[in-house]
Amino acid sequence: MWKCRDADRQRVETIEGLSPNGALHPIQQAFIKEEGMQCGYCVPGMIMTTVAFLRRNSTPTRDQIVEALNGNICRCCGYGNLLKAVERAARSIKEAQ
Q1: CATH code of the domain containing 83
Q2: What is the pTM (predicted TM-score) of this model?
Q3: Exposed, middle or buried, 40 (CB in 10 Å: 0-12/13-18/19+)?
Q4: pLDDT: is 65 or 2 the higher one?
Q5: How many domains is the chain partitioned into structurally?
Q6: Is 38 contained in some domain?
Q7: Amino acid 3: pLDDT
Q8: Which is nearest to 12 in space by CA: 24, 27, 2?
Q9: Cα(31)–Cα(27) distance, rounded to whole angstroms?
Q10: DSSP state letter for 93
Q11: Are the C-beta atoms of residues 46 and 69 closer than 8 Å to each other?
Q12: DSSP label at 10?
C-alpha cells in the first residue's frame, strides 16, 4: 500500500507540470490529434502513465502499450484512439530526438 511518506523528498510529476512554458507536451499533442479523449475522466492518468511508460520504452509494440495502460479505466471505451495516441506520441518523441 502506498503511503504519503513514500513521496517524502521525491519528485512528484503531475499533468500540469508537463507544459510549464505553456506549450503542450508531445504526448498531450498526440492525444489531441488522435482524439484520445472523450469525457476527460481518464485522460490525466492515461497521459501520465504514457509519460512514464515511454521514458522506459521509447519504441513499444501495441501489446506493450496495452499492458502499460492496463491499470487505467476509460469510461467511454475509447481504447482504440488511446492506443493510436500512444503510438503517435512514441513516434513524435523519437523524431524529436
Answers
A1: 1.10.150.120
A2: 0.87
A3: exposed
A4: 65
A5: 1
A6: yes
A7: 67
A8: 2
A9: 6
A10: H
A11: yes
A12: -
